[in-house]
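The aim of this short unit is practical: by the end, you should be able to scan a pair of folded records and say something sensible about each. We start with the first protein, listed as its amino acid sequence and then its structure tokens.
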Amino acid sequence: FKCNNQIQCIHESYKCDGISDCDDASDELGCGSTGRDQCNKELQFKCEKSGVCIPINWKCDGTQDCEDGSDEADSCGEVKCPPSDFRCNNSRCVFHSWLCDGEDDCGDGSDEDNAENCGKPPFYCKSGEWQCPNLEKTCINTTSVCDNKRDCPNGKDEGLGCDVDDCKGNLCSVACLQTPNGAVCICAAGERLREGSDKECEDMDECFTPGA
């Protein structure tokens, strides 16, 4: 249902349920006698005690939506999620699009711990840092690379490669850093190397937490 403000869209089952879901309350206009305690039986389920109308697909979905739990009665039996949903370990059903989005929608974390669906997120050091070779999630300041002092736990921020000037003539888009393994391009704050490139920088996702 499209609200009169032409901005919001709500589920059709929310219309005339006695609760204003549109900011302009247009979902409760022109409802006649239909409202709280008078649910649309084809689209809604009425909670036994409160009379509140909820979407029919919330009945027997493994999540208690009615205060009295009448939408999850014993007669529901085993919860079976529709093909468009993911079945949580606690039998709750959530949309597949909610998997691996960083939020615990299941309530037991199973939508975020599912190895089959959630790949391992990439790790990036913060701007101005360099990742120690062969050490996951271990970063040091770029000024500590090739400074004749071992800063990485495995000491691999120092080596014979530090005595070579590979940065000469390098085509980095921002700046070049000499490392024991040769020259690497470094990016400005808020940027990182473009995937598949060792020279071009790109803006980082502002919602991404570097080093997390």
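Turning to the second protein, read its sequence before its tokens, just as you did above.
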Amino acid sequence: MAYDRYVAICKPLLYPVVMTNGLCLWLIVLSFVGGIIHALIHEGFLLRLTFCNSNTIHHFYCDIISLLKISCTDPSLNYLIVFIFSGSIQVFSISTILVSYTIILVTILKKKSDKGIQKAFSTCGAHLLSVSLYYGPLLFMYVHPASSEVDDQDMIDSLFYTVIIPVLNPIIYSLRNKQVIDSLAKLLKRNV
């Protein structure tokens, strides 16, 4: 989505040529295949572990870190694999988004029109806010040393990005709509 915004703002005349259905399909397939490979690597390393304790997982869903915590064998190699792969995926994703938005910001600041600047910030602001809200908890959840004190914090983080962010996304993206903003302004003026 950051690449889509980059092309829309930095190369608006080339947008229909660059963002073709074929490119979108290619990006979807790459993401899907990357996710499957990532999952298969974790599952392969998970098969070497034995689980003899309680099968109750202290989490909202069956995540890899939660499974590693109930293992009877030493899961330190698995933790290292999770740290390396999750960290590299997050660093790659975040750096791609930051580079795209840095170029977009430079392009926006070169524009002379206030309306163009406002429209560009409106287009990018919602996505950047959603990405920031989503990646924050993920960084804390997957790229930190394992300890027993952070179990409850992991649950709060996972609740944040599995429940709260999907609830906030429609609100964030609807704030780009002028009618929604006008209705919200009327409501706030009436209550104040």
